[in-house]
Amino acid sequence: MKKFLAAVAFSALALPAQAFDISDMTDQERAEFRAEVRAYLMDNPEVILEAYQVYEQRQAVAEAQRDQQILKDNADAIYNDPRAWVGGNPEGDITLVEFMDYRCGYCRKAHDEVAQLLETDGNIRFIVKEFPILGDDSVLTSRFAIATKMVAGDDAYGKMKDALIKFRGKISEKSLVKLADTMGLDGGAIAARMSDPEIDQLIGDNHVLAQKLSISGTPTFILQDQMLRGYVPLANMMELVAATRVQK
Description:
Residues 1-19 form the signal peptide. It contains eleven helices and five strands, in the order ααααββαβαααααββα. By secondary structure, the chain is of the alpha+beta class.
């Protein structure tokens, strides 16, 4: 009887919940079953870890599948928003999207590595989503960057984006205007454009999109059809890009 119950207990652990119904047992069988399960787990505690590892793997697969569906449902807003800045190779065979905040430490850490990835690969389309979430300084900086694109174009935005992510001074409209002037841009004209309602709309739309994608932190990357939440070291990103190409 004990061997039978042990076998049943092991099977119960391995099968989905609906495949085994303990309510079909008598009270005595149920008590013996529970005792056997407990004894088995006490003798083989590694089974709990193994089961949890399987659970985590299944959760990761399910999350990836959910992400893929969400990305598919919002593909136009993610990949084809004409207001977003596109860098790297606009005709690249792989698309990398970054939700970023200029005051985010990990965004700063990722910045040079993303630039190196784009340069060494040469075939990645890179889209930036302005996503200020770290307070008033973040919003002010993001507004100034978007205003730069509106006033001076994509090339100026790209340079301003690089300058802002590396900027370590006190954030104020005055300091940002001074920064733009030192770059040969018209800082006053850019500052005047910061109140444009289109900037409010773009930042608001990016926040709505992030909510739909369950993005709450920066940096968050989208590599083709997979979500990468948080900082990804350059070597890992290169491996992911290579694997993505193989799967295409």
